[in-house]
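During the reporting period the student researcher (J.K.) took over the structure-prediction task from the postdoctoral fellow and processed the backlog of single-chain submissions. One of the processed entries is reproduced below for the supervisory committee.
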Amino acid sequence: MNILVCDDEREIVEALAIYLGNEGYTICKAYNGLQALAAVREQTIHLIIMDIMMPHLDGIQAMLKIRAQHNIPILLLSAKSEDTDKILGLNMGADDYISKPFQPLELIARVKSNLRRYTALGSLEPEADTYASGGLSVNDRDKRVTVDGEEVRLTSLQYKILLLLLKNAGRVFSIDEIYERVWNEEAFNAENTVAVHIRRIREKIEINVKEPKYLKVVWGIGYKIEKIPQ
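J.K. obtained the following structure tokens:
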């Protein structure tokens, strides 16, 4: 399992990497909240250990952004030991809280306990009816599309195209296949129709439509959603 350790004190990150690495975990390292968000977008993370007081983006704010998309167990670290900090962290969505300085064996025990609970509740499996690639996510139950936690509004046809491609991320669909599966009729001169909808979808989900991250064209074949790890 992958554990993200985030603390602006590099010595603590390295120490935790050694302790947890000896337990068989794969360690991802970050040194501020922005780096933590990037790590969660780019990799599959099963648990996060994160300091509260960090530059650029503190642990509480980073946790809130992560919580908007992921139900990953989060253990907060802080040099402060006051009850108010502990209560704040837990109320804002943390699963556990450890004060510095901490005993390595206690931290490891808490990590194992939270991972057991996470696994037992089935949270390692994707939420039913939810499909995702990187920061792009579609909840087909609620018909809700988000990109990096921000909701995106699509028309019915745009939604159906995106859902088809995202459910089959990595697979290339021809223009005719997209048309037949979305419009439920035989494709006839469908290229312009599909291309217009693809362009509209890109305008809504991509930062740079000229260099799309998610919705890619495979020249001479069709379109696909890039398969990007969570």
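The committee noted the following: Residues 57 and 147 are 20 Å apart (CA to CA).
J.K. will present the remaining backlog at the next meeting.
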